[in-house]
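Example (one chain per record):
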Amino acid sequence: WQVTLVKLASLITLLHPQLLLCQSGFNAQAVTKMAKFQLSFHSIQMESPPLVKAAASIMRELCYSNKEELQAGFITAGWDRKKGPQIYVVSLGAMLLNAKFKPDMSLEEATQFSTNALALAMGRDNVSGSVVHLVVITEAEVKHIVVPGDKLPKFHDG
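Predicted structure:
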């Protein structure tokens, strides 16, 4: 047997156009597949694209109903016609809220905030990759941004 960990792999999954899921942890991929199926079914029932909050609610329910076997966290993010851009976190562990977050950030501020948050988390996780994958979701487009390791902010010596 040979096991290869791909530390550069993106953990971002497209659930629906303009709706993404970022996953981390044990069993996350199985839950993501279930969520994608349920969200597709929900969209057919509603005869419209799903709301971001509906996707986050599906994630919350899946995580709660599988809490004994699951060790994972999820970020559901996207854009919908009802509320515009949104981000929801479903976490089994502690959630870190950064005092630098503020509503109505510019795209540049939000991108830097997200990059900083991920760089801080990666500094505490020895299996995280060396790049940051960001996705900017607007009404007009879904844009994937990769920030290479040598461009990540440094918060400590090392």
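Caption: The first helix runs from residue 28 to 46.
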